[in-house]
What does this fold into?
Amino acid sequence: MSEQKKILIVEDNINFANELATNFEADGFDTLYADSIEVAIEILSNNEIDGMSLDIQLKGSLGINLLDKIYSGELRLENTPIVIVVSSFINPQILRVLKKHRVLHYDKAAPGFNFTMILDSFNSLLNVAPQTVRRKLDVVTDDNLKVIIRQKLEPYNFNVKAIAYARLVDGIYYTVLSSSVEKSSLTRIFEAMGIEFAKAFIGLKRLLHEAFNGKEVVPTPADFISMIAEEIKKDFPSM
It folds into this structure.
């Protein structure tokens, strides 16, 4: 990306906001964060941003009120940012306002939702060329390894809000970091995290069945985790 674009994330769910920010930053964006309309207004008044991801149901107020301030001119901005609503609270009344201002929206609670939808939309609306196949990070560290793992998992369209998805990422993470992969290593990985492997296995198996629905062969959790871990090791031989 020749010019780093700045995105304001207005979201009071800190876990969702962090996940969204991680995906934005991995794709070359800079991010700012607000958990309320008041904080968002302060940021908008002191920073020039290119885009804003806006939740509707915020603590103490509705994100739709921020849209009213922006598009009515009450909130004076040098450049009106591209706004995409990412919320699970979009009723018919709010939908009419979004259509009026031609604001794109996504239901973050929908089963098929994933963060790539938001990235691709901002890339398109801001005329930004996406990083080369989700840009490989030049240096792999423990901090950005999970970013790489999530990028590897994107084509499978997993339900990223499922507990099993987080456990899948953790399983791959620790498998990549392991010096050797033994048949019992996955069991030890989950035991080390204080998770009973038998329960984790059921969730992982269900997650894979949903993602591979309609396919002749559904990989076992151990086989799938091992496959992704090996792909990452091939991509980054220095690990």
In short: The chain has a mean pLDDT of 83. Residues 175 and 226 are 7 Å apart (CA to CA).
